[in-house]
Amino acid sequence: MNTTLIRNGRVITATDDYVADVLMQDGIIHAIGKNMVVGEGVKVIDASGLYVLPGGVDTHVHLQNIIGPTVTCDTFASGTRAAAFGGTTTLVDFALQTAQDSPLEAIARAQRLADSQVNVDYSLHVIVTRVDAQVLADVRHAMRHEGVTSFKMFMAYPGVMMADDAAIFQMLRQVGADGGMVALHAENGTVIDLLIKEALEAGHASPRYHALTRPAILEGEATHRGIRLAELAEAQIYFVHVSSNQALKHIVTARAEGIPVFAETCPHYLLFDDSVYHSDEFEIAKYVMTPPLRTPDDQKHLWRALRYDDLQVIATDHCPFCMKEGHLGYQRQKMSGLHDFSKIPNGAPGIETRLTSLFDIGVMQGKLSLNRFVQLTSTTPAKLFGLFPKKGTIAVGSDADVVLFDPAATQVIHAEHLHSQCDYTLLEGRTLRGQVKKVFLRGELIVDGEQWLGREGMGRFVPRGTVQAF
Ligand code: URP
Ligand code: ZN
Ligand code: ZN
Question: Which ligand is nearest to the CA of 290?
Fold first, then answer.
């Protein structure tokens, strides 16, 4: 019997804030109380002065994902370890349906890769690239029997992952009726491809043209189209990595109309803006992610939407590619696009710095309350993707996934101190207030300061339920 008492910490959930003792036993939260008396065999941890948070739930992560000709440079082992050090104890990665196989084969393949490596609990969204009667049957099977209840579809990347509007509509109609979630990458992919072609023909090959060829208006157009398809299908819909007010304004209007639209943004859209793109240096490839960073005005709207619940989730879209070719043996990473920005793999790391960076720029700057911080990074993602109340809160009966967080500590971020295999962090040299001190996964201490106590394979695949938003 593994029993630990966290004594005298400040327990913060999406709704509560109180000082208490939390007793974890056999992997779950067994009791919460004041001045609890425990027997000899119980480990007692003094959490005075620390926040006791539910483990973070990151619903947008790319580990060991094959993307075009390359692969993201974190394995399920390294990426989940980095997640744990950052206070995330559950993540949702992706299973890619290829041209040859079905969603069920994609799930099985991703599980075979992940199961022996994962250090935290995980689930999968299936990326559905092709829809026919068999695919729809498999999607229904995945929801009913595999515990996979969300599906990502792309309106961008024609010829690679893009699905057409009819395919998206069919998925929305069926998945929505069954209570699941279609998560949409909303950008008008065919117009973007034209703009890329024209830029390259004009000799504009440096990384900043990635941003210039993916204007916010094309994110807005696709978001609007996705909303109308969801409205027709009478389905809930979730927009990943919302970056711009062009997209937000459609989300806000649709929610006011009563359409069940949900959306996430990512820390990088709040931490950085498009001023980083004002040079032709290749260093800017670090910021080549999709959608690109937007203007300070967009950021203002993102904060407003986070505050008033027009955005419900902050996920990382951790999609790491190395800057140095050959780092840890990884090939065809960012340098692939040295002479052609369209060949730079899209994505940036961020899995370990999500909670601390948001605590610093959100809570400490007065933009988010502590409860809202927990809601955005743990509780609502758990609810929208069918993990609640097993995950996403501190309550009797929930999994004992707990983070002890020191609000008074500060740290300076350097890639070499992080646990991702990526050779850079967007936050290099930045001082952040707040620090993850201890992390428990189902009651087991896996992070203790700088010490790693977890084990590869100790994470579990978590079968998920339907959307719990209403
Ligand atoms: O740049 C990004 N976001 N890469 C990952 C793939 C995606 O669109 O989420
Ligand atoms: Zn995407
Ligand atoms: Zn992504």
Answer: 1
The arithmetic mean of pLDDT across residues 64-70, rounded, is 94
Q: What residues does ligand 1 touch, defined as CB less than 6 Å away?
A: 62, 185, 241, 289-290, 317, 319, 346-347
Determine the Cα–Cα distance for residues 170 and 188; give it in Å rounded to an integer. Answer: 19
Distance from Cα 314 to the centre of ligand 3, integer Å: 13
* Closest approach atom of ligand 1 to CA 290: 1
For residue 442, what are the CA distances in angstroms to 3, 24, 40, 72, 108? 11, 8, 21, 28, 24
| Residue from 196, 187, 306 nearest 246 by CA | 187
DSSP one-letter string for 267-299 = HHHHH--GGGGSS--GGGGGG--SSPP--HHHH
> Atom 3, ligand 1: which residue's CA is nearest?
290
Query: Of 28, 10, 27, which Cα lies nearest the Cα of 19?
Result: 10
Structure tokens at 422: 């990526």
Nearest CA, atom 5, ligand 1? 347
CATH superfamily of 56-384: Metal-dependent hydrolases (3.20.20.140)
How many CB atoms neighbour CB 286 within 10 A?
A: 21
Instruction: Give, in order, the Cα–Cα distances in Å from 307 to each of 14, 97, 215, 301, 359.
Output: 13, 36, 25, 10, 14
Q: Residue ranges per domain, the chain?
A: 4-53+398-410+431-452, 56-384
With 0-12 CB in 10 A as exposed, 13-18 as middle and 19+ as buried, what is 366?
A: exposed
User: Is the distance from CB of 415 to CB of 422 less than 8 angstroms?
Assistant: yes
Separation of alpha carbons 182 and 201, rounded Å? 36
State yes or no: pLDDT of 470 exceeds 80: no
Give the bridge partners for 19, in sequence order: 10
State the first-to-last Cα distance of the chain, in angstroms, to the nearest integer.
37
Q: Which CATH class is domain 4-53+398-410+431-452?
A: mainly beta
- pLDDT category, 99, cuts 50, 70, 90? confident
pLDDT in tens, 438-454: 999 999 999 999 999 99
